[in-house]
Structures are given as C-alpha cells and as structure tokens.
Amino acid sequence: MMSLMKPDIQMDESFYKVEEIRHLTGETFSLKLPKARFAFKAGQHISMGIVGGNQSREYSIYSGENDENLEVLIKEVENGYFTPRLRRLKVGSMVEVHGPFGKFGMEPELAAKGKFVFIASGTGIAPFRSIVHTYPEIDYRIIHGVRYSKEAYDRQEYAGDRYTLCTSRDKDGDYYGRLTGYLKTCKFAPETHFDLCGNSNMIFDALEILKEKGFDRDQIHCEVYF
Amino acid sequence: MITNDKKSVAFKTLGCRLNQYETDALVTDFSNAGYELVDYNASPDVVIINTCTVTNQSDTKSRSVISQTARKAKNAVVVVTGCMANNFKEKLESQENITFVVENSRKSSILSLIDAHFSGEIAHPDQLPQDVFRYEPVRKSLHTRSAVKIQDGCDNFCTFCIIPMVRGMAASRPVADVLESVRKTVENGFKELVITGVNIGRYEDGTVRFEELLAKILEVPGDFRVRISSLEPDGFGDDFVKLFDHPKLMPHLHLCLQSGSDKTLLRMRRMYDVAQFRKTVNKFRTVYPDFNFTTDIIVGFPGETDEEFQQTVDAIKEFNFSHIHTFKYSVRKGTRAERLENHLPEKVKTERSLKVRDLSVENMRRYLESFIGKTQEVLVEKIGQGTASGYGQHYIPVHFKLIGAQKNMIVKVKLTGLVGDDEDMFLSGEIVNNS
Ligand SMILES: Cc1cc2nc3c(=O)[nH]c(=O)nc-3n(C[C@H](O)[C@H](O)[C@H](O)COP(=O)(O)OP(=O)(O)OC[C@H]3O[C@@H](n4cnc5c(N)ncnc54)[C@H](O)[C@@H]3O)c2cc1C
Ligand code: SF4
C-alpha cells in the first residue's frame, strides 16, 4: 500500500494522521500511523485519543520496532465508548498519541537466548506480533484464544508450528475450547518464559495453570487489558 | 498584619508526602528570597495552595481550601498548584479567585513567577521551565524529618489511579543530584531523611537502580538515618534485604498490597500476586523478625466478592501490618476502573473498610506490645508539657518524660507500656541514655 502520509505533515509530536486502515474481521481493524520518530520497545503500549475528543484509551503497539508504520489492533467493543468512535475514523483522520508506556515487553539480550510462550486472548496478541516482528529469530510459541477462527489476526505471519489457535465458538481452530483448556494439556521446558496478555479472567486462570505446572511467578509476565 | 516592605507568603498543602516535600522546598525558596512565612489568616501577599486529586474527597477538600483561602486572603496573589491543577487546569484557570494555576512540572519555579508578577511583568505559568527535580534542599525549622525526592511520575496505570495522568511518566533524578541533595539536607541539620517519589522502586539512572542508589545514599557521611516513603511490591533481591543491616537504614517499609486477592490485583493491573508479596515479607522477617510492614488497602474495588475480600482479611492477618491506610474505593474520572463492571454499593464498602480498620488497630496493638521491655532510638519531634514524643527506628510512636531531651535529638528510650486503644495509641517509656 502506498504511503499517503509524508512525515512533514505531522503537526506535532503527539498528533498523527491515520495512513491506512486494515479491516481484519467485522469488528476488528488496525490503524496504521506514520512511525516518524516514535521510538518504543516491542511490547509497550500507547495512549490514543481522537483529535477533538476528550477521552483516550491504551493500545499495545502491533507493529515491530523497525517497521515502517506505527500500527495498533483494535476490536470494536459493543456498547463501548471509544472503539465505535475509532471505528468511524477515515484515512486522513487525526489521532493523538502519547507514550510509549509500560514495562511489558522484550529485552534484546533475553530475546536472543530465551525460550518464550506467548499466551493471548483476542487483541491481546498485539504485543506479541510486535515482538515477533522486532525479533524474527526469537524462539517462541503463541497460544491464541478467540471465539471464532476468523479472529486469528494475521495468523499467516507466524510459522505454522509456532501458532496455536484455540476457538471457543467454532471448530475451525487448532483446538476447540478455551485456551486455558489447551494450556492444561501442554508441556513446557522448565526454563520457559511466559508472557500473558488480554483480559484479567483469562490471565488469572492461565496463571493458576502455570503455577500448578510448577512454574515460578517470576517467570511469568502479564499485561492486563480489562 | 505585615507592616514592613517585606512580602509575605502563606502555604496550604494537601495530600501525600511528596507534595509536602515540594511545599517545604518552596518555603525554603521563598524564605531564602526574603519572603516572610505567615499564616493565611494574616493577610499574606501571596498564598500558595498545593492541591491533591488522588480521591474524590481530595478534590472536594482542595476545592474548599481554595475558596476558603481566597476568601480570607482577599488581596493576595493566589497560586493553585499540585495534582488537581493538572487534572482540572482549564476549570481552575477560569476561576476569578485564582491568580495563577501552575502545573506540577512547573511547580519548582513558582518563586520566579511571583517575582515577575511583583516586578510588573506579565507572566504566564506556561512560560515557566518544566523541571520536576529543581527543588531546593529543605531548610531545617519546618520539620524534624526531611524528604529527599529521587523520582517523579509513574506509567504503571493501575486501573484505579489518576496519578499517571497528573504526574506524568516515570522520571528519575540523576544520582549526583540526589547525593548532593542528601548532603545539603544533612548539612541543614536534619537527622532523618525520607526517600520520596511517586514510584521510587522504579528508580533508574543509567545502570543505577533503586537498591544501588539507596546504598550510595547510606554511604554519604554524617549523622542521619534514612526511611523509605512507600514502595510498590515489585520484587526485591537479597541485596535489598541486606541493605537494612546498615545502621542508617530504618527497619520499616510501607509496601502497598492494595488487595489480598490475586483476581482483584489483576483487575487493578497490579502485576504481582500475594505469593510474591509473601516471599518479600518472609525474606525480611527471616532476617529481621521485628521488621515493621505497613500498607495501603483498597476495599470495595469493582467486582470484589465476599471471598476476595476475605482473602484480603487473611492477608492482613498473615502479614501483620502494623498500620493499614484503608481506602474505600471511589471512582476517579478518567481511570480504567471507572469503566469496570460491578461497582459495589457504598454500604458494602463502608462495612469492609470498618473491618479493615479494626484489624489494623488490632495488629498495631499486638505489634506495639511486642516492644514493651525493649529500647528504641527515638527522634524527638514534639515537646509538650513535661513530655516529649517521636518515632523509634521501627516507625513506632513513643512518648516519654522530658528529661534533657530537645527537638531533633535522638534519644534511647526504654519502652514500658502501651497507652490508648485506637489508631492514636503509642508506647510510653523512659530515657535510658542520651546519645
Ligand atoms: C495496556 C493496555 C493495552 C491495550 N491494548 C489494546 C489493544 O491492543 N487492542 C484493543 O482492542 N484493546 C486494547 N486495550 C483495551 C482498550 O484500552 C479499551 O479498553 C478498549 O478499546 C475498549 O474501549 P471502549 O471505550 O470502546 O470500551 P470501554 O467503554 O472502555 O469498555 C467497555 C467494556 O469493554 C470490555 N473491553 C475492553 N477492552 C476490550 C477488548 N479489547 N476486547 C473485548 N472487550 C473489551 C471491558 O469489559 C470494558 O469494561 C488495552 C488496554 C490496556 C490497559
Ligand atoms: S504504581 Fe499504580 S498506584 Fe502507584 S502511582 Fe503508579 S499507577 Fe498509581
């Protein structure tokens, strides 16, 4: 896709023009913004507002540290306040971005030698795509829990044996049921690092399972969305 | 009433220790510049109100202090600063009874603003430089204990907390600056320093993290002792525990648990669990059995079930916090918790809060009683009629007969009994040996 945005159109450090919108499902889309000078660590999030509005929300960065764009993955939440408004944005609309924030993410030294399992529900896959884009050589597995198989956002970007899709409402994933059900069946090497991202109920259940399997809480990092 | 040419200034401070420190530093700044420090009833030329916005109650209190003060000090230049000034900047700027609204990041330059105002310049607070660490070391005379600010801001975004929105992202004061401030504060005569910031465990200046900074502070020469204001339970290594062997570092931590339920902690976006907290507490108590832990607890957080609250009660009993700062959850506009489901009725929150308060008093009594018969080195803070009072190393309140003791002295007191049966209880004792 051709870039519609030249860096010199950026008005201010925190104002960005939407450059591209990718519709991934009926409810989920990504916003591509010009990356310009925005530096971040894979796994971090931004706070985003709509110019002229008075609210903002946090979004994990979906793109890699060296990708051409700054991208976020957004699911429109039924009866939500902000996401329906984000959904109405057009290419050329302005958003306000603050950040990057947060300690969740990947250190380069660890990425080079560690073994990782990324566990995500829904759009919680966002920071992991950023990590995989940034560190293509990383030794990882993704366990992604969604309701329908169409929510396997950008699945083709992950090597087939590294990505497991757990679907709770249709049988077209790799595992039919909640990701926590699948997690119970898994075996992991003792030195594995776990990164969990998504809603707090999933994270709570997954933590319990990992602790039961004998993993130390210090090996597990969490990013809670809601 | 001030009759000479000397300008006078009055301060009002709400909220946390960090705010108090920043006011103290401003007081030092103004008095160094020749201003007279007066009460706000004494028709001051300038009134500075350092506000807080951490809860709805703080907002109400800040608002009422602003209107009361502005009414009483009619002809004064009224400056409103602090976290509420960030959170409600435009609204406050439109109020006629306020002359200047100064954001936190520009607070340290209020003196320049006032000087410019009195010399007839048209000054606007937004022209002031932004620097959250440009504070003068606090001058002796204000308190017996001085804070030293090492850090500001936080980007943890706990779902209930407005602080990241009003104090901004985490920033650390350079090591050399911190050590210089420690040296000057000790030179100014302080015997006790409190290491302060918004989230000080996140301190990071190059390769120096919180533990290393603390070790460096303890090596500054001088006769002083060090406390840590309040810490997030981010997980501490053995080196941190060992630091408390140092005679200057006092055996007390205010470690914010917030809830004893792992589920609630996740909804709060607190990234530790109770087992990790337990590990930290046990690490300390294995080495220092009488180590004092105090904490913050939020009760009635959205979705908190009876079972989850019970887990908090169990944690309070297990960890024996000698004091609990209890917050009944209240909605802060603009925080994520505002949008969480299952907000609890006020009645439930009140019941839970009372229960935690009772437990806190019970724990306190047990903890204080365990010191009867022992001695503590008490920093004398108040002198009353025939008695003196202050806090011992473990941050326990002690009252004793005034025999040769003066304010800001450290005296050895043998603890003989417990007085009172509510949150204000204290240990009584006798001086055994002046040092
Ligand atoms: C650090 C962080 C990173 C985040 N990253 C992302 C991201 O990459 N992509 C993303 O879509 N969201 C992300 N979120 C959530 C996001 O900030 C908003 O909460 C979300 O977009 C809903 O906003 P809203 O105003 O429409 O709904 P709100 O009115 O804020 O929320 C209504 C309800 O919707 C539910 N909800 C919130 N987020 C989601 C979600 N993502 N999926 C399903 N239900 C939800 C909750 O139950 C919430 O109470 C993140 C949150 C945090 C704290
Ligand atoms: S750690 Fe959490 S509670 Fe403490 S200041 Fe930061 S966001 Fe607020």
Task: Provide a descriptive summary of the structure in words.
- The complex is a heterodimer of chains A (about 230) and B (about 425).
- Chain A has 5 helices and 13 strands.
- Chain A is of the alpha/beta class and about 230 residues long.
- Chain A has a 6-stranded parallel sheet with strand order 11-10-9-8-12-13, with helices on both faces.
- In chain A, helix 4 runs parallel beside helix 5.
- Chain A is globular, with a radius of gyration of 17 Å.
- Chain A starts with 14 loop residues before the first strand and ends with a strand.
- Mean pLDDT of chain A is about 95; it is low at about 1-10.
- Chain B has about 425 residues and is α/β, with parallel strands linked by helices.
- Chain B has 3 domains: about 10-125, Methylthiotransferase, N-terminal domain (Rossmann fold); about 145-370, tm_1862 like domain (pyruvate-formate lyase- activating enzyme); about 375-435, Beta Barrel (OB fold (Dihydrolipoamide Acetyltransferase, E2P)).
- Chain B is about 35% helix and about 25% strand.
- Chain B has helices at about 15-30, 55-70, 85, 90-95, 110-120, 165, 175-185, 210-220, 240-245, 260-265, 275-285, 305-320, 345-370; strands at about 10-15, 35, 45-50, 75-80, 100, 145-150, 150, 170, 190-195, 205, 210, 225-230, 250-255, 290-300, 325-330, 375-385, 385-390, 395-400, 410-420, 425-435.
- In chain B, helix 12 packs parallel to helix 13.
- Chain B is globular and about 60 Å long.
- The model of chain B has no long low-confidence stretch (mean pLDDT about 95).
- The interface between A and B is medium-sized, with 16 and 20 residues.
- The structure holds flavin-adenine dinucleotide and iron/sulfur cluster.
- Iron/sulfur cluster (SF4) binds next to helix 6 of chain B.
